[in-house]
Design goal:
It comes from Oryzias sinensis (Chinese medaka). Keywords: Disulfide bond, Immunoglobulin domain, Repeat, Signal. GO terms for molecular function: signaling receptor binding. This is Ig-like domain-containing protein. By secondary structure, the chain is mostly beta strands. The chain has two domains: about 15-110, Immunoglobulins (Immunoglobulin-like); about 110-220, Immunoglobulins (Immunoglobulin-like, Sandwich). Helix content is about 5%, strand content about 55%. A six-stranded mixed beta sheet has the order 1-9-8-3-4-5. A five-stranded mixed beta sheet has the order 12-15-18-16-17, with no helix packed on it. Strands 10-11-14-13 form a four-stranded antiparallel beta sheet, with no helix packed on it. It is elongated and about 70 Å long. The termini are far apart.
Length: about 220
Amino acid sequence: MEVILHLSVFLLLVKAAAWDHVTVVEGHTVTLNCNINSPLKKHVEWKNPDGYVIFFNHIQALKDKRYSINRLSESEFSISISNVNFKDGGTYTCAYYNPNTTEMKVELTVLGLPRMTRIKHKGTTLVKCSAKANHHPPQILWSFDSGPEFRVYEQVRQRDKMYESIAFLQMLPVMRRIKVKCRIQHPAGHSQLLMDFVKIRQNGEYNSFHLNLFCIMDFFA
C-alpha cells in the first residue's frame, strides 16, 4: 500500500507532456526546441530516445560531438544534432524542474533521399527505386513523363529503427526517350522539399541533382 501511495504522489508532480514532431533528411542538421514556461525552473535536461541524458543544464552528459546547445535561457532550451542518421530517430524528452517536473517530447523522424538505379539483365531493363525512413515504410509512387502516378509491389525491410522500401519496374522497348519518376510519400514528409534527379544518357553515364522528394530518370530503351 505504501508503494502505491508514493507512486501516486510522483505522478501528480509530473505534468502532462506536450508533443512536437520534427522531420529531417539523413545527413542534415536538426534543431530540437523546448519552450520553458516557468521562470522558477531550477534545472533542465534533454534525454535521447534511449533515455540517456544528453544535456543537464550546460553540462553535456552524452559525449557525442554531433550534439550542441543552441540556446539555454529562462524561456528556451534548444539543441542541435548534426549529421543525423536513422539511429537518431525516436522520441526526445525535455524536462525542467520548478520544483515539479514538466516534460516536452519531440518525435524525430529521419528520411532518406530516394535512389534510382537501372539494371540490365538478359536483355531486360529494370528500374529500381528505394527509400529509407523512420517509424513507417515510405510509399513509392511511379509515373512516366507527366502521366498519372501508380504503385507497384514494394518490398519492405526493417532493421532497428529504419524501414526501407524497394520497388522495381520492368521497362519494355520504346520508340522515344521517356522520363521515369519515382516519388516518395511518408506521413512525416509533407514539409520536405528534396528531390533526386537521375538523368541517364545513351552511353550509360548519368548526373545526379538533389532538389526534392522525387527521383527522376531519363530512360533510353
